[in-house]
Design goal:
Keywords: Membrane, Transmembrane, Transmembrane helix. The chain crosses the membrane at residues 12-32, 44-67, 74-99, 179-202. 70% of the residues lie in helices and 0% in strands. The chain has 227 residues and is mainly α. Helix 1 runs antiparallel to helix 2, helix 1 packs antiparallel against helix 7 (169-207) and helix 3 (71-97) packs antiparallel against helix 7 (169-207). The chain is elongated.
Amino acid sequence: MCGGFTCSKNALIALNILYVVVASILISVAVYGQASSLVTNLPIVGGILACGVFLILISLLGLAGAVKHHQVMLFFYMVILFLLFLVQFSVACACLAVNSDQQEMLAQQGWNKVNMDVKEQVQERFQCCGFQSRIMPPNTTADYPSCTLVDRICCKNMDISPECQCQPCMEKLKETIDYAFKLCGGIGLFFSFTELFAVWLARRYRNQPDPNYKEPHAIFPRSNYLY
């Protein structure tokens, strides 16, 4: 019967297998991005890799606890997963609540921290120049890449006079940044509720008695009985 011991056990095993698959995808994406140099920002790669490894460890703990019906494993699995739910739910809500001004501020900080190669890749990819303006602000220490190449690309694609210039990158990146925040927030919110469901399922399964468990009985010889 669904809702019984066997159903709860199988559901918890299936949910943790799903987490293992998702964690494997995260690890594969991080390794591929680092190997192919698609992502040159190492903290991003390290963050994705750390999330994948942490999720797969929790999933293996949940799998072991579900298969063995181990009370201690299931207890720590519930506690760690609930803490992860709180963190992920908070981050997801923060991503969904970020307005355009905050997105621009975060993007500006990221632009100032990345190296020149990343800025040139962004300019060529989105056909833009500079972040908010083509003019370099006074008393700034940030590196500003050349816009000669991207200006030629923009003018060729726009098919106008040679005096044309590319727009600042923030104008081109607004929709992309907003979509990225909404996508991350939506996915994080969805998986956070699956983690809350896993906590409830683990608690339910932990409190259910195993029908195949046989209680030990001490057997004494009849000579030891008192009559």
